[in-house]
Amino acid sequence: MKEKLASLWQRLFGDSVRAFGVVSVIFLGSLAIAPAKNFFSEWRHYQHGYLKMVRNRSDANTLQRHFHGGIQQIWLPELGVVDRCTSCHVGLKESSLADIPLQPYRTHPVIPHKLDQFGCTMCHRGQGAATTVSEAHSSTLAWEQPILPAKYIESSCGECHRGPLLGTPQLNQGRNLLSRVGCVHCHTVKLSDGSVMKASDDPPSLSHIADKTRREWVYAWLKDPQAYATTSTMPNFKLSDDEARDITGFLIANSTPVAGNTATLSAKASADPAAGASLYGESFCASCHAVKNAAGNMVGGDVGPELTRVGSKVKPEWLQAWLRNPRTYDPGTAMPHYRFSDSQVATLSGFLLAKTDSDLLANVHLADATPEQIAHGKRLVADYGCASCHEIAGIKKPENFAPELSRIGSKPVTQLVFLPGMQHTLPDYIATKIKQPRSFGQGLKMPQYTFTAAQIDSLTTALLSLNDRSYTLPPSLAVAATPESDYQPAGKAGMLMTDLACLSCHRINGHGGDMAPDLTWEGSSVQRAWLVDFLKNPGTLRPALIRRMPRFNLSDGEVNELTDYIMTVYQSPAVDRDSMPLSGYSQGQIELGRQLFYGKYACQGCHIVNSKTDKGYIGPTLTQVGSRLSAAWIYQWMKNPQALRPGTTEPNRAMGNEDAQALTAFLISQKGGTKKEVAKK
Amino acid sequence: MTQYGSNPTRVTTAALAVTLLATFATSCSHQSANSALPKATAFGAAIVESSGGKQIAQTGSLLPQPVVVQVNDEQGTAVAGALVEFSAAPGVAFDPPNGLTDSSGQVTTNVSLGGMAGRYQIVASTTDKSHKKVELKIDEIALSYQQTLGRHLNDQYCERCHNPESTVERVSNYDNLEVKPHPFSEGDTLNKISDADLTAIISHGGPALNKSALMPAWGNTLSKSDIQALISYIRAISDPPSRNAGPVYAKN
Fold first, then answer.
1. Which chain A residue lies closest to B143 (C-alpha atoms)?
2. What is the pLDDT of residue A160?
3. Is residue A392 part of a domain?
4. Do B102 and B114 fall within a single domain?
């Protein structure tokens, strides 16, 4: 063996010429490594594949002409983008390659941005400068950001676009949930525009809870909120029996009575289910409150709490006082102050109190709370951060109770703790944390929510959009959200509107709900007499609408107050109410308008003017539009409906003055002979 | 020389192969992680769809409703305890990926579609008594960004007339119209209309192509790109599929 080696050495390096030759060969060989590596590189392999694929297509010439070999790069210094993705993804810009099923050769789907202006990693994450698949797509030791899974891709839209976008429903829903289910009560979310995300829910104050409900219910609720109301957004804190008992004890002992919220029943709850159901229906309680019906379907809105088992929760005297005037107990409530009569309060409370569930409190037996238990309960309330959401007398709202989430979308994976079997990526961490927060360790406080899988995906999307890049963007790229105004109507009428909680459903000057029409220009739109009539006895304008305006039993004085305010204040500068008369149009003009209505513009597809022949179900019924709207409003509406009410479904027909005038004449002549009949419906 | 030169080559090729394999393996690991299959206690003869086919979702996202399939025996009665496995093109995820049929013979799974827009074919399979595979193919549709935008515009402006079905929130106007609009899934009619003609009808109304004036002109309300988005959505959901509907992703 030794001899063999020695002879080999002798043969290769025996003399200097020989040695020089061999060393040269080794040297040349090692020099060849670099070009060889380049020649056999992955991107070249994909480019060869592309050219091979393209060769047999009918558009081969065009595609070949567009093709550039070698490493391709999109360099956008101001965005920090150095993306070489197009070295392998060769067909991204070729619209004819939409039929290729898989990347890297398929056309990029149509989006509102240009590849050359944004690059790839702005949206998809990953390592743009890398030239191998694994380095570009996966996380490596030097690079934490793997490709963003397709289902979270909308998070990247949210880096620049701070408001909702039509094409990003998942991001919109996620952001909405962040503020609606109360995440931001505990977690601070500072947005890149300097604002702080605000909660849009309004968890009830617990300072007077003993007025409202009994200990047994509080205990059952704390143990499992969804057992009482499946739609409740109160999370489950997984409390032990003792913890729930002690918190209950503290909350009840800590509660003080509300002045004026009388503890005596002023009227006996009447047990007339038929009358109760009809009053519940007439008052359109279901516009805001849901009740699970016998078939198991949830019927009603989600503005107010679910009422399926409300009879097992509230004290009868509290319910009556609440129905009489909810603002006594909770001045900021979204519930309107209905002017119910005593007998109506009795009927409605009787109807609601009958909505019980005997199983709910069957196994709850609580002895009187001891002072030790109450003290322990108080500590627990502080520990679990109850006051982050709820007002509790004597307990301060904790600051920064939970980790701030302002840049959670850039959190390094090395700082995260993963569960066994989990993929080690940030999106998976966030999704799992939302799904089962307590599984990440002992003593964690984040409660268990009841989100659907789709909700978890959208929350994860919204959280991923809160990242470093959203802060470091060039300001020119940021698209600001329309700021929510804090408009409040003023004066005496303003107080009345607050009392009636108009803004819970209606939007005025950029503030309020979205269930009912925007009233910003209502004064230009409607006629005074109609508004008076409507407030006294709200009917329905649209044949196929479920949620409607309730009747508040307003006094004549209140109706006048409101009407005067609306007619004077809510005026559009684009509509001069007095510029067109409400009558006196020529028969010829009215007839022309009729022909345009039924012929050229075929308005009967969506509207009803003649209730016998027309059937349109989409727009408001127009049988009495001449008594409802001002002529100037109709005229301007014909010319451009979106200018008066952005986002309205009515198509803009870009009508000329003549057509608009004739249609106005025709519509204003519809004074509605069948008014009584409609009102009865 | 050749010997020295070829070594790095082999290394690179090997590295390439390894990377490709690794990528492939990671993309498949989803399925293989759940490899512990439950044991079937019964065998059926046929597998049928109960619900959840032809749903529409965004790329990569969860279908709004779960997919439910049922295993029946030769007589058509439901079989409990049969093993059903779900599979599809890479990128599609099932939760759970397999299961035993319940007392009503059904298995329910939540499906997330892949990251590319197009049609996804899902295969639900079970084995019969002679260990032969019985398969059921279910199609689902994944929408791109543009198609999602089109879908949103459809919900806002089109659907009330063009969709004959009513829901609790949306009462259909279809029956009220003298000339019936075409539901957008009606591929037999809509596939024959070119993009240019669809654009003309949407922008200028039915009369632009001698059709009913009940279809109003939307050209002043919707932008050009809005209308393109709408058309891309209509193409995506038509049945039978349009030529422009995008690729079909089936299990390879």
1. A109
2. 92
3. no
4. yes
A677 — pLDDT class (breaks 50, 70, 90): very low
Q: Is the residue at A172 inside a domain? A: yes
User: What ipTM was reported for this prediction?
Assistant: 0.85
The answer to whether the Cβ–Cβ distance between A167 and B149 falls below 8 Å is yes
Cβ-contact A313, A215 below 8 angstroms: no
Residues B26, B54 share a domain:
no
Does the beta-carbon distance from A32 to B12 stay under 8 Å? no
Structure token pair of residue A460: 């994860």
Q: Above 70 in pLDDT, residue B15?
A: no
Counting Cβ atoms within 10 Å, is residue A539 exposed (0-12), middle (13-18) or buried (19+)?
Answer: middle
Give yes or no for residue B10 having a pLDDT over 70.
no
Ramachandran area for residue A517 (φ above 0: left; ψ -120 to 50: alpha; else beta): beta
Contact B247 A602 (CB under 8 A): no
Give the residue with greater pLDDT, A35 vs A407.
A407
Minimal-distance CA residue of chain A relative to B232: A110
Residue in chain B nearest A655 by alpha carbon = B220
Residues of B in contact with A653 (CB under 8 A): 216-217, 220
From A250, A255, A254, A231, select the one nearest A239 (Cα to Cα): A250
Which residues of chain A from 509 to 528 reach within 8 Å of chain B, CB to CB? none
Which site among A45, A103, A110, A613 would you substitute to test the B interface, given the most B Cβ atoms closer than 10 Å to its Cβ?
A110
Using a CB-CB cut-off of 8 Å, the residues of chain B touching A457 are 61-62
Q: Is the dihedral of CA B16, B17, B20, B21 positive or negative?
A: negative
- Indicate the residue of B5, B114, B116 with minimum beta-carbon distance to A29: B5
Q: Is the pLDDT of residue B19 over 50?
A: no
**Which band of pLDDT confidence, cut at 50, 70 and 90, is reported for residue B193?**
very high
Please answer yes or no on whether A605 and B152 come within 8 Å at the CB atom: no
Query: Strand B248-249 to strand B133-143: parallel, antiparallel, or no bridges (unpaired)?
Result: unpaired
| Nearest residue, CB atoms, B148 vs list A137, A169, A544 | A169
Q: Which residue has the higher pLDDT, A602 or B19?
A: A602
> Is B8 in Cβ contact with A652 (below 8 Å)?
no
For residue A363, report the phi and psi dihedrals to the nearest 5 degrees. -105, 15
The CATH number of the domain where A556 resides is what? 1.10.760.10
- Residues B124 and B181 grouped into a single domain: no
Show which of residues 537-596 on chain A sit within 8 Å of chain B, judged by CB atoms: 544, 546
Q: Is A170 on the interface with B (CB under 8 A)?
A: yes
B205 & B226 share domain: yes
Of all residues in chain A, the percent with pLDDT exceeding 90 is: 54
Distance from CA of A99 to the nearest CA of B (A): 6
User: Domain holding B214: CATH number?
Assistant: 1.10.760.10
Residue B96, preceding peptide bond in cis (omega within 30° of 0): yes
Distance (Å, whole) CA A94 – CA A92: 6
More confident residue, A675 or B247: B247
Asked if A422 has any chain B CB less than 8 Å from its own CB, the reply is no
- A543 plus A611 within the same structural domain: no
Residue A408: phi and psi, rounded to 5, are -60, -30
Nearest to A605 among B59, B110, B177 (CB): B177
Is A203 in the B-facing interface, judged by CB distances under 8 Å? no
Q: Which domain holds residue A443?
A: 159-200+402-477
Determine which helix (DSSP H) or strand (DSSP E) holds B139, and give its type and residue range: strand B133-143
Looking at per-residue pLDDT, the higher value among B85 and B20 belongs to B85
- 3-state SS, residue A57: coil
Residues in chain B closer than 8 A to A611 (CB atoms): none
Of A40, A109, A599, the CB nearest to B13: A40
List alpha helices for A436-579, DSSP H: 453-464, 468-472, 491-499, 522-525, 528-536, 556-569
In tens, the pLDDT along B81-102 reads 999 999 998 889 998 999 999 9
Q: How confident is the model at residue A120 (pLDDT cuts 50, 70, 90)?
A: very high
